[in-house]
Amino acid sequence: MKNIDVNEIYTLFEEIKELVKAGNKKNTAIQPEIELPDLSAITELSYKLDETIGEIRKPVRTEHHHIFTIASGKVFFGVITICIALLLSSFVIYYQRKEIFTYRDNNLKYRYIQMQGEITPAGLINLDSIFENRRDSVKKIRQQVE
What we know:
By secondary structure, the chain is mostly helical. It is built from 5 helices and no strands. It has helices at 6-26, 40-57, 73-116, 121-133, 135-145. The N and C termini lie far apart (129 Å).
C-alpha cells in the first residue's frame, strides 16, 4: 500500500470543498433520473385483495357427512357389543320383573294374613294355590286388603 502524505489529502479535501461551493452558487439541483414503477399491477392486486376479503366475510355453510359402514372393524365390533349389552339387559330386566311380581304377591299374602289375624298350615297352602292358579281371586284379595 502506498503511503499518502497528509498534505496531499488536505489538498484533495480543499478541491472537493471548492467544487461543492461552486455547485451551491449555481443553485442547480441535481435531478437523478428515476424510473417510476408500473402501478397498474398494484391496483390490480388491491382489487383482488378486496374481492378475497369480501369472499371471506360471507358466511359459509359447512356440511358434515358421517358414514358408518359395517365393513369398518370398529363399527362392526361396536354394533356387536351394543347388541350383546342390549340382550343381556333384556334378560336381567325380565328376571327382575318376575322377582318383583313374586315380592308383590308375598307382600299381599303377608298383609292378608295380618288382616285375618292367624292362619293354619292348610290355609297357607290354600293361599299359595290361589296365588299360583287363580289370578282373578288375587284381585279380590287385593281389594279386601286395601
